[in-house]
Amino acid sequence: MNTASNTMVLDFEKNIFEIESKIESLKYLAQNEDVDINQEVTRLQQKLEKQVRASYSNLTPWQKSQVARHPQRPHCLDYVHALIEDFTPLCGDRLFGEDEAMIGGIGRFKNISVVVLGQEKGHDIESRVKYNFGMAKPEGYRKAQRLMQLADKFNMPVLAFVDTSGAFPGVEAEARGQAEAIASSIQQCLRVKAPIISVVIGEGGSGGAIALATANRVLMLEHSIYSVISPEGCASILWRSADKVKEATEALKLTAQDLRKLGVIDEIIAEPLGGAHRDPLAAVERVGDAILKHLKELLPLSGEELKKRRTDKFLRMGRHFADSK
């Protein structure tokens, strides 16, 4: 297990961090003095694994939200660079301009030509500003529509990596038709006659997420979240208080486990012990394996059948929730 001395420490990870710090202190001591630390390090590593397993086996929805937002989780471009060969970005919406928050392009996944879409949050201050914290503007969603049309024309599967707190809420985005752009993206998803597989890799927020997740298969990483609104936004609207964020998280049923029970998603992808941020390479590999499995099931289907199944899936979901009220 990798230690995480340089990582952001979540509230419930303090005991884990203390053990990791002891291990690193012992290793530093061994570099400067002739002492045998192997036995003690082995004992602490066993204790560390036990503590991580205990902490992550029973996370609350709010704790899962914190993990989903962890800045060191692998983001969209991490998956693209690891899983997509010969990735070629395709920029611009041909109407207004380029939106760097929305990643889009073509490449090969396991020797299958694919169109790739996704929101990129960035890993540090500079990259987060560059990618607007993963919050796409209308031109981003119109770029996504353009690439979905390309996928439809050349019968290329669409792979979407969803990771956004929501679409950009600024005045300029609203002035350029944010709501219409999201609605049109959802509509375009329903029109495509090629397989669409969406993976919620971190945070799936509101229409900004569903614009890329109206898919044949929607997958979620174990500690990711997917909701119509952020916990903070929900608490602000319902209770008018940020202190109610934990209650809001519980009420939203936004965890992968809740959404699998409700039939909103198709599969939960298990994360490495301690979350994807502790072993990003293993997390990326597991996502790649899951995508390949579903792609093999969808590729033999005709375009009309893929389109029909996708439409029926979401209509059935809507009827179910309407009948349950």
Q: Which fold name fills CATH's third level, the topology of the largest domain?
A: 2-enoyl-CoA Hydratase, Chain A, domain 1
Helical residue percent? 40-55%
* Spatial extent as radius of gyration: 21 Å
Structural class: alpha/beta
Features:
51% helix; globular; 8-stranded mixed beta sheet; 325 residues; alpha/beta; 14 helices; 2-enoyl-CoA Hydratase, Chain A, domain 1
What can you tell me about this protein's structure?
- It is a single chain.
- The chain has 2 domains: 11-58; 65-323, Alpha-Beta Complex (2-enoyl-CoA Hydratase, Chain A, domain 1).
- Helices cover 51% and strands 15% of the residues.
- It has 14 helices and 8 strands.
- Strands 1, 2, 3, 4, 5, 6, 7 and 8 form an 8-stranded mixed β-sheet that branches.
- A hairpin with a 2-residue loop joins strand 2 and strand 3.
- The radius of gyration is 21 Å and the shape is globular.
Short note summarizing the structure:
The chain is α/β, with parallel strands linked by helices and 325 residues long.
